[in-house]
Amino acid sequence: MTAVAAVERELLPGDLVKKIPGLDGLRAAEVSLVFSGVTRLDHLDERDIELMQAARLGAPVRLIVTGRVAAKRYAVETSSEGLKYTFTVKVDAVEDAEAA
Questions:
Q1: How many helices (H) and strands (E) does the chain have?
Q2: What pLDDT is stored for residue 2 in this prediction?
Q3: DSSP secondary structure code for residue 34 in this structure
């Protein structure tokens, strides 16, 4: 049994394993989402000002991100010997989820 198969069996119930993207007969042991881009806040917009004022280092923040899938990538991780699947979202806009 491969390391990938072991991870699938431990973490995911039967039918869910089949829904995870695969490549060359392998299923990803890890799936990641990467955000790419910069959204500038408007210092004249009331909601942006409230977000800036509420921001604290190390504090959680809830945001709504709107973007486009810009890339999909598979890679074999040598440290875990598993297949890693990553997709990247190019950020178009971000808004404060609390204000929405």
A1: 3, 5
A2: 37
A3: E
Domain count, the chain: 1
4 within 8 A of 27, measured Cβ to Cβ: yes
* Residues 37 and 71: beta-carbon distance below 8 Å: no
Average pLDDT, the chain: 77
Residues sharing a CB contact under 8 Å with residue 1, sequence separation 6 or more, in sequence order: none
Q: Return the closest-CA partner of residue 99 out of 66, 54, 59, 57.
A: 54
Q: What is the pTM of this model?
A: 0.61
Quote the distance between the C-alpha of residue 14 and its chain's center.
23
Which backbone phi and psi does 80 adopt, to 5 degrees? -110, -5
Structure token digits, residue 47? 């909601």
Q: What is the pLDDT of residues 20-58, one digit of tens each?
A: 777 777 777 778 888 888 888 888 999 888 888 888 999
| Range of the structural domain that residue 47 is part of | 3-96
